[in-house]
# Entry
Amino acid sequence: MSDSSSSEQAQQGTSTSENIKSFVSGGAGGIAAVLVGHPFDLTKTRLQTAAPGTYTGAIDVVKKAVARDGITGMYRGVVPPLLGVTPIFAMSFWAYDMSKVLIYKLTPNRTSKELSVAEYAAAGFLSAIPTTLVTAPVERAKVLLQIQGQGQGGPQYNGVFDVVKHLYKEGGVRSVFRGSTATVLRDGPGSAAYFAAYEVTKKLLTPAGSSPSDLNLGAVIIAGGTAGVAMWSIAIPPDVLKSRIQSAPTGTYSGFFDCARKTIAQDGVAALWRGLGPAMARAFPANAATFLGVEASKKLFDKYF
# Structure
């Protein structure tokens, strides 16, 4: 959503208007991502959390979900990300822009006006930290709603507010935020790869003498899709553990590493890559939609405000 040639804009991006632009554009991108990617996400989560033998693969998950609930079954659990997606993505893209501003301020004597790949990655990592405050509870509710249709025991929820109410009653704020550590361990490195890959791809697609901000939407789609693939290439193992921690009955795991140990002991190391197929299938279209929404929103803001 930002380009390597706009270092002055990044350094001056602390203005209220730029903050609002980053925040709202990120939210628009997130809504686009959910609408495109939720069926893939549901398939991934069910593969990650189901008992061995429940499904033969991603296609089997889809067939059983559609047979049970119709095509709308592929959007089970979509309300939590839709309700949370605006603050999650809005905060992520805002925090990314603010992290770039911070890097510029911490390096006043820099020799290059452009951030390096490592600096883009650092800004991406930092953006995941405040975002977790929203991501963790939203994903906790989403996971519980997603697994509800696959025949597992436990409470049956009427919707996202029923989930949150039950979780709070069960264990207070701590229960609502279960999986926060796993979320940071997934989204920190994942966001580093995500934003760095986006910036690098945009730069590679920019003709000599042009600015990345002038790229057409087709190039934005390619860069956004590449960013998604880069993120999920490294994010699946912590995502598997996050899904298991957030969906398991209270007391099943004492923490992230206990979940990793028990998962490997019970299902083998390969279990840490469950859901890789749906995640990678989702990565390109969902994140292409994300950055398309972000860039289109920013251009709209630039035109009218």
About this structure: The domain at 7-300 is CATH 1.50.40.10 (Mitochondrial carrier fold). Confidence is low (pLDDT under 50) at residues 1-13. The chain has one domain: 7-300. Residues 25 and 298 are 6 Å apart (CA to CA).
